[in-house]
UniProtKB/TrEMBL annotation:
Residues 1-11, 22-39 have a biased composition (Basic and acidic residues). It comes from Phytophthora fragariae. This is Uncharacterized protein. Residues 1-61 are annotated as: Disordered. It comes from the Eukaryota. Residues 48-61 have a biased composition (Low complexity).
């Protein structure tokens, strides 16, 4: 799976949601998100809440 690209607004939205988490959760979620952006995972990080993730990364060739 190719690596994904993320817009600045997607990154900022992700960072804002991440800031509301504990240090342990931030570490886990950031690692999951990195794996998603790098193309290692099919699904983005699971914040464990009802709000869906806003990151809609676009794959670039």
């Amino acid at each position: 799976m190719p690596a994904r690209r993320e817009t600045r607004s997607e990154t900022e939205a992700f960072q804002a949601r991440l800031a509301r988490r504990s240090a342990t959760e931030r570490q886990r979620i950031a690692a999951e998100h990195r794996a998603f952006i790098d193309g290692e995972k099919d699904d983005d990080a699971d914040f464990g809440d009802a709000q869906p993730a806003q990151a809609r990364a676009v794959a670039r060739a």
